[in-house]
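Hi U.,

Before I forget, here's the chain from the pilot set. I'm dumping it here mostly so it's searchable later in email.
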Amino acid sequence: MDLTLEQAREYLASLGLTVPDFVLQILIGQANSIDECLIGAGYADSTALLIKLYLISLLGLAQGDKFVSSESAPSGASRSYRYRSLGDAWKAQHGLLRALDKSGCASDLIPPDPTATAHAGLWTARGGCMGDPS
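Structure:
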């Protein structure tokens, strides 16, 4: 079952995410590219659609942490935003996707965790004379 633009837009809006349609079309193309794996894994159409929606949400979340919290007019007038922890949102959506996609069909499309930080150490040494022993 192909994920449609309207389904993706509606789901992302329910999460408070707004992604431009041209970007959303690209993300939908990526999500729909895993159909062969989803079918081969024996997922029901409804489960496959949820996997795609959760994948789209991860891809959308990776683009930022600003979410529409209220909108008093359809035109966007009086729109307010809230900022939530990207890490919390990421973990929730990633957990939903992993719980459904036991076969890992979406694994190659999941972007890196935007909250992960590389741990690197810096070791420095200082050399020179210790002084005149005389």
